[in-house]
Every structure is written in C-alpha cells, then in structure tokens.
Specification:
The chain is α/β, with parallel strands linked by helices. It folds into two domains: about 210 residues, Isopropylmalate Dehydrogenase, CATH 3.40.718.10; about 140 residues, Isopropylmalate Dehydrogenase. About 40% of the residues lie in helices and about 20% in strands. It is built from twelve helices and 14 strands. The strands form three sheets. A ten-stranded mixed sheet has the order 2-1-3-12-11-4-5-10-8-9, with helices on both faces. Strands 6-7 form a two-stranded antiparallel sheet. Helix 7 links the parallel strand 8 and strand 9. Helix 8 packs parallel to helix 9. The protein binds nicotinamide-adenine-dinucleotide. Nicotinamide-adenine-dinucleotide (NAD) binds next to helix 4.
Length: about 375
C-alpha cells in the first residue's frame, strides 16, 4: 500500500453490543495503523435502531454517503426488542439490506479458522480440526434468492436459479484474488451433475481461471463439499460458491470452528467493502461489558487483508488473538473452568498488548516512528 495515502474508514457501531465490540475493534485498528505508520481517518455514523431513534430511519442519506466515500466500513450489529414491532421495511435490519445493496456488495467471505486454543471445543475431533484455515466465498446478490420468476399458489411453489455471466466472472475473479493472498487454491462448489446453471457456473469459472495460472482450481459437487468440510476441513483454502450453497456451507464452516462471538465476516463489492461480526446485537447481554469482541476484531484483520492488502498486519492481529486465548483469557461465552474470565474491554486491551508485543518481536518495530 502507499504509505502517504489516508484510508477513510466509516464506523457504524449500531445497537446492543454493537458499540461495545466495535470500540475494541477500533482500538485494535488504531494500534495497527500506528505500528505500520499508516494514516487512517475514522468517521462514526448512526446506523440501525439508534438511527431510527434520532432520524426516524435506519440508514440516513448522510450515513450512506459517508460509507460510499470511504475505503472500508466497519459495522457492529443492529436490532433489538425496542424496534421489533416496527413494519419490516422500517426495522434496523432493513438498513443492513439497504447498505449492502447501495455498496454493491456481491461477495461475502466467512473464514473457518481454528485457533489452536480451541481445538478441543469443537464437535469435531482435534486431529481432524487442527490446522483448519479456509474461507467460504459466497455470491451474495444473485442466484435462486433473487431469480425470476418466483411465486407460489395453492398447487405449487417455484423459484429460479439464474446466474448472468458477469455475476460469475466477478465473484470468480474475487476468489482467485483472495486465493492469491492466501494459499493459492480455489475449490468451486456447484451441482453441475444436475443443474444447468451450475454447468454454466463451472464453465465461466474455468474461463476466468485462465487469467490466474498460479492459482490451483478444482470443482466439487455441493453434497460432496458439505461432507468434505466435516471429514477433512484442512484440505480447503478458498471455497467459491453461489448464494444458496454458500448460505449453507458458510454456517457449517463457521460452526466447526467455534462460537458466534468469534466469527468475523467481510462483504466485498467492486468499489466498496464492509466488515462485520457474524453475530447480532445480543440484547440479552448488552450494556454489561460481557460481549466477546473477537469477531469484531477478526473483522478488522479481514479489513487489513482484503481492503488494504496488508496481509502481515492481518496475520499479527490473528496471532495476537491466539496468544490471548492461549494465555487462558476468555469472555463469558467461551469461558471454561480453569480459564480466566475477562470482560469486553479487558479482552480488547489484552489483544492490543499482544499485537504490539508480536509486532516488536518480529523486528517490525523499525518501521514505526
Ligand atoms: P445474536 O447473535 O444477537 O445472539 C445470539 C446469542 O449469542 C445470544 O445469546 C447472545 O448473547 C450470544 N452472542 C452473540 N454475539 C455474542 C458476542 N459477541 N459475545 C457473547 N455472546 C454473544 O442473535 P439474536 O439474539 O437472534 O438477535 C438479536 C438481534 O440482533 C435481533 O434484533 C436480530 O435481528 C439482530 N441481528 C443482527 C445482525 C446484524 O446486525 N448483522 C445479525 C443477526 C441478528
């Protein structure tokens, strides 16, 4: 990245535990920027329920314009009982759909990474799980969720799975680019033995692959892929798939590796990107300083990777999370007897401390001012 260019980041803390976990993620963001002498400008805007309270709508034009002008958006979570009875299109969650659409976010990335401190916590055996580190890249704006015609009557129901060539091309490109930042392997998942749209998907992906000769491509049918993720998750690097299959596979992938409070995500478009934890606003624990900030902090690591191509920064954030877990610190959601219970803020502080320690240990400190 060019060191003299300021990166503009919009921060949308949202509702419930959103502001609590986002505050910790911002702390990490600032520590990373300082360490790498990178100029960042953070602008916080209301979004979700808090925006409804102040302005009568979940996503104001001002918030949207700020997001559109930024290099990346960091989102906490939205929603809560206070706004539950509003009509669907006025709810905080309607803001989520609005912002994803306006930013043109057609690719969703959910990582499945197993922290060594957690290999014994999964439903899978430690030896199957150890070393797992892959991402599911899901097409987000096309496929059967949006295809026409759709409908139902008393006698039948129908949906249409349709993909345009440009939709497959752009998500395939993203997959190869992401694999280039990782271990250079893409597995495209489809159902080409049964569905014409999947054969089309497979052909287009193969065509785009010609532009990326240093990346390995293979194809799997979705039923086999689901089985393989549970049987031997280590074999994957980047799983590329459509909206429907990705919806299912990203949940399987997320859950083999840990709890909801640990799962980050990224949504990418041609020009914009949004990073957010997978979890919601957790009204049951909001305001108590108990929330796990690791998903939000992991989302910042993804921002450095995918928006700023700073893979080293992303790596050190992940190492800092791992070191903190390895030292036995846990928030309430991942607490086990024998570990040390900490609150949201303390977890954030510990991760920042570990980030700084690892950064200097690696001899990278010479780059700081
Ligand atoms: P949720 O993810 O908010 O919570 C589910 C359970 O997981 C709760 O018991 C909660 O305490 C726990 N949990 C979630 N995140 C945690 C964290 N970081 N640390 C510790 N524990 C955590 O899901 P829900 O209860 O179904 O939804 C609550 C609200 O959030 C609803 O209004 C829903 O619409 C909204 N929601 C928003 C988003 C988003 O903003 N992207 C996503 C999902 C749900």
């Amino acid at each position: 990245m060019e060191p003299d260019v300021t990166k503009n980041i919009t921060v949308l803390p949202g509702d419930g535990i959103g502001p609590e976990v986002t505050a910790q993620a911002v702390k990490v963001l600032k520590a990373v920027a300082k360490a790498f002498t990178m100029d960042i400008s953070l602008t916080e805007k209301p979004f979700g329920g808090i925006s409804i309270d102040q302005y009568g709508e979940p996503l104001t034009d001002d918030t949207l314009q700020t997001c559109l002008q930024s290099d990346a958006v960091l989102l906490g979570a939205v929603g809560g009982p206070k706004w539950e009875d509003l009509p669907h299109h006025q709810k905080p969650e309607a803001g989520l759909l609005g912002i994803r659409k306006a930013l043109g976010l057609f690719a969703n990335i959910r990582p499945a990474k197993v922290y060594p401190a957690f290999v014994n916590n999964s439903t899978l055996k430690p030896e199957v799980l150890r070393g797992t580190d892959f991402v599911v890249l899901r097409e987000l704006t096309g496929g059967i969720y949006f295809g026409q015609p759709r409908g139902y009557n008393a006698e039948k129901g129908w949906n249409t799975m349709v993909y345009e060539k440009y939709e497959v091309e752009r998500i395939a490109r993203k997959a190869f680019e992401i694999a280039g930042l990782r271990n250079k392997r893409v597995t495209s998942v489809d159902k080409a033995n049964v569905l014409d749209v999947s054969q089309f998907w497979r052909d287009v992906v193969a065509e785009v692959h010609k532009e990326y000769p240093n990346i390995e491509l293979n194809n799997l049918y979705v039923d086999n892929a689901a089985m393989q993720i549970v049987r031997d998750p280590k074999q994957f690097d980047v799983i590329l798939t459509s909206n429907l299959f990705g919806d299912i596979l990203s949940d399987i992938a997320g859950m083999i590796t840990g709890s909801l409070g640990m799962l980050p995500s990224a949504s990418l478009g041609e020009k914009h990107a949004l990073y957010e934890p997978v979890h919601g606003s957790a009204p049951d624990i909001a305001g108590q300083g108990k929330a796990n900030p690791i998903a939000a902090i992991g989302s910042v690591a993804m921002m450095f990777n995918y928006s700023f191509q700073m893979t080293k920064a992303a790596q050190i954030i992940e190492q800092a999370i791992e070191a903190t877990l390895q030292a036995g610190y846990r928030t309430a959601d991942i607490f086990q007897p024998g570990t040390k219970l900490v609150g949201t803020e303390e977890m954030g502080d510990l991760i920042v401390e570990n980030f700084e320690a690892i950064f200097h240990e690696e001899g990278l400190g010479v780059f700081t001012l």
